[in-house]
TrEMBL record:
GO terms for cellular component: plasma membrane. This is Olfactory receptor. GO terms for molecular function: G protein-coupled receptor activity; olfactory receptor activity. It is a multi-pass membrane protein. Pfam families: 7tm_4. It is found in: Cell membrane; Membrane. Its main location: membrane. Odorant receptor. Belongs to the G-protein coupled receptor 1 family. PANTHER family: OLFACTORY RECEPTOR. InterPro entries: GPCR_Rhodpsn, GPCR_Rhodpsn_7TM, Olfact_rcpt. The chain crosses the membrane at residues 24-45, 57-76, 88-112, 194-223, 235-258, 270-289. Keywords: Cell membrane, G-protein coupled receptor, Glycoprotein, Membrane, Olfaction, Receptor, Sensory transduction, Transducer, Transmembrane, Transmembrane helix.
Length: 316
């Protein structure tokens, strides 16, 4: 069973310098608050605006929920540790972090793949779009994404049961993740390696292939559009998604799961901050700042709120 010899592992965190810890605490606290406001804002806006009741925004709302959960699993504990001299984590807390973070991490992979498929159907088969991307299909894609995440979480948690930490309890990271735990194990890690590699290959790579194949079909279709305005509009619907995919896949897949488990270097820790803390904050801005429909929905809600205030004072 995991942690047979040691029940309280320790996290290295970022630094032991008090001033730097205080600055990092303020920085990550601000990041977390922006993450909460941004993702909750996206969810509320999508639910409140009829113009955003479409498959693309249905997926985006679930993506915002997943980002909110992923950040909440990691950041509050990290903020507490920045204020403590000894950054320990209980066995149950370590297991919970591994399970939940792997659940929502893999769910995000498949949500991004579902969004890529949605863009493929919208651009390459626009006449069939209402039929193919029906509410039932969208629900099945989102449900399947959560099920894939759950499968990954259960698999990684099972792999922890084969690990034993008798010589070292220090995790060179700011949260519990399966890869650094494997590198610390004093027991045979063959099964854990197999589960980690299988999850990365079957789950992560398969979702990446959906994204890749979707855009292999999308790009020639966009280039074949005769009007410059049509090309611009088609590209604009994919820009936000491509930006999110590039950042998320680049930081999480390459740095964290598609390399052999080893002691975490500084570059790995930076990548961990990026996909665990910063990406959940960035996604709402990526999808809203350059999105005309989101801006119009915000403007409409603002106008409706102003009208309600005017009617209130008139009634008074």
């Amino acid at each position: 069973m995991v942690l047979k010899c040691l029940s309280t592992p320790f996290l290295v965190g970022f630094t032991e310098e008090p001033v730097t810890q205080g600055n990092l605490f303020l920085l990550f606290l601000l990041t977390y608050l922006v993450t909460i406001v941004g993702n909750l804002g996206i969810i509320i806006l999508i639910r409140a605006s009829p113009h955003l009741h479409s498959p693309m925004y249905y997926f985006l709302g679930n993506l915002a929920f997943v980002d909110l959960c992923s950040s909440t699993i990691i950041t509050p504990k990290m903020l507490v540790d920045l204020m403590l001299e000894k950054k320990s984590i209980a066995y149950a807390g370590c297991v919970a972090q591994v399970f939940l973070f792997d659940v929502f991490g893999m769910t995000e992979y498949y949500l991004l793949a579902s969004m890529a498929y949605d863009r493929y159907v919208a651009i390459c088969h626009p006449l069939l779009y209402p039929l193919v991307m029906s509410p039932k299909c969208c629900f099945q894609l989102v449900t399947g994404s959560y099920l894939m995440g759950l499968t990954n979480g259960v698999g990684q948690t099972i792999s922890m049961s084969t690990l034993s930490f008798c010589s070292s309890s220090t995790i060179n990271l700011f949260f519990c993740d399966i890869s650094p735990l494997i590198s610390l194990s004093t027991f045979d890690t063959t099964l854990s390696h197999i589960i980690l590699t299988t999850a990365a290959s079957l789950l992560g790579v398969s979702s990446s292939l959906v994204v890749l194949l979707s855009y292999v079909a999308i790009i020639p279709t966009i280039l074949s559009i005769n009007s410059a305005e049509g090309k611009r509009k088609a590209f604009s619907t994919c820009t936000s998604h491509l930006t999110t995919v590039s950042i998320f896949y680049g930081s999480s897949s390459f740095f964290m799961y598609l390399q052999p488990p080893s002691s975490y270097r500084s570059l790995d820790k930076v990548a961990s901050i990026f996909y665990a803390v910063l990406i959940p904050m960035l996604n709402p801005f990526i999808y809203s700042l350059r999105n005309k429909e989101v801006k119009e929905a915000l403007h409409e809600l603002g106008m409706n709120k102003h009208k309600r205030k005017r009617m209130y004072f008139i009634d008074k």
